[in-house]
Amino acid sequence: MAKTDLTYEHGKNLYINLTNECPCSCDFCLRDGGGSIYADNLWYGESEPTKEEFLSDLETRDLLKYEEIVFCGFGEPACRWDDMMWLCDKIKEKGSFLIRINTNGLSDLINERSTAAELDGRVDSISISLNAATPEDYDALCHSSFGLEALPAIIKFTANCVLVVPRVYMTVISTMDEEEIEACRAICKKIGAELVIREYIDKEDDMNGFIKEAGMDVLTAINTRKSIRNFTGEAIGEAELSTILRSGFNAPSARNCRPWDFIVVKNSETMAKIAEACPNMGMINRGADCCVVLCGDLNLSDRDVFLVTDCSAAAENMLLTAHALGLGGVWCHAAHDEQRAFFTELFDLPETVKSVMVLVLGHPAEKPEIPERFDEKHVHHEKYN
Ligand SMILES: Cc1cc2nc3c(=O)[nH]c(=O)nc-3n(C[C@H](O)[C@H](O)[C@H](O)COP(=O)(O)O)c2cc1C
Ligand code: SF4
Description:
Blueprint lengths: L6 E4 L2 E4 L34 H9 L9 E3 L9 H14 L4 E5 L3 H5 L13 E5 L5 H8 L7 H15 L2 E7 L4 H14 L2 E5 L4 H4 L11 H7 L13 H12 L10 E6 L2 H10 L12 E8 L6 H21 L3 E6 L3 H11 L5 E10 L23
Parallel strand pairs: 2-3, 3-4, 4-5, 5-6, 6-7
Antiparallel strand pairs: 1-2, 8-9, 9-11, 10-11
Bound molecules: flavin mononucleotide and iron/sulfur cluster.
Flavin mononucleotide binds next to strand 10.
């Protein structure tokens, strides 16, 4: 098994995996799945690192790089409350870094005292799992060792946090029914906390990391993808776009040169200019959200044919990913001399960077038929005839 991560990066944040202990056993807890989206291994086994070891780990990181430092791992950080407070102080001594705690809110019961006041000046935001609107529902879902006492204690802890922590929010998962979500909203309103509805992360999908939202296997994606040329005008989310781009970077490339430069264009004026200059990209004006101009750099792979083949592999990966995410797109040729000259001027491309194709992406406003294209007569075995 991979070495246990004391801290791990995800998105723009650094996470501290303080402990594997927890007094709950939530039905949806990712710990039972054994893996994590974000880190190789968050399990400590027999013994957990000391607070000094966490500090040493943090000292190997460039903390300036992160938007937030978050206590969140495979366990409840309040189980090591004193160590967490000590680490908050050490981090704040190094600079005014933003600190967040993700917690089940059971700190007072775990530590047998009222703890929220200790967060004053140490923690900038706290995310507390609410999960249910009644003690019975909470118990049925989270199976806390504190039984029916758990939810009232969580709410009291949260109300106390509101007095000392700048941002306090409680979370519920999106699969709850509307009525329950409304009841949770009322609880938050009463104590002055925000309510955040977060996406449910399926344990099995969690192992697939960033493709977790796709919900489509690769064969289905390949065999049901069609070019989409009419879009709804709805925006593609940043996370979806970055998933699409990541798939591009993971395409095969000749000699592994990966000569790619992907230019994302969301500006409507620039998109209109592209549509006007390139008649084959007229669908840009039919509700597309963005274009990704795939370019290849001759400094990275010195043959134009490889720029074209490598960008093609990336383009197909990206189109399949868009489709798997419920989005749509079309591949538009952009390697003719006049098109290259146009994109060079539009983006101020260096001499060696050449446009190859443009992917026009958006939310589909059409649902093309899926034809059967398998054609036995073009499959040859051993010899052509
Ligand atoms: C190299 C290449 C260039 C293409 N250029 C364009 C284009 O400029 N404009 C366009 O509307 N579609 C373009 N397409 C999309 C094809 O027309 C489309 O893939 C083909 O008709 C098959 O339909 P399907 O993608 O729905 O399976 C291109 C596809 C490829 C592979
Ligand atoms: S409170 Fe968090 S760590 Fe504990 S069981 Fe529930 S989801 Fe897992």
